[in-house]
Amino acid sequence: MTLADERIDRLHALARKAARAGHDDRARECVRLARRIAERNRRSLPRRFERFTCDACDSYLRPGRNCRVRTQDGHVVITCECGTQARYPYE
Hints:
This protein is α+β, with helices and mostly antiparallel strands. It is built from 3 helices and 3 strands, in the order H-H-H-E-E-E. The chain is globular and about 40 Å long.
């Protein structure tokens, strides 16, 4: 595991903790910083981190609080409060 991967994991934990505490701006900054680190080091974000962040507004998504989760024909639709939708397949 590289230093970049460790920082991304740490920032994911900090973003989750900040979102739980209600500090949405702090969580958003952690998400932005993790994305910048991943881009700079040509790393992909972990799937768990990628699925709980909005691509448009960089907010950390918490179902029922700032996003809506629905299942449709073979995929999950996550709608952020900014209006952006993400679709992920499931079996």
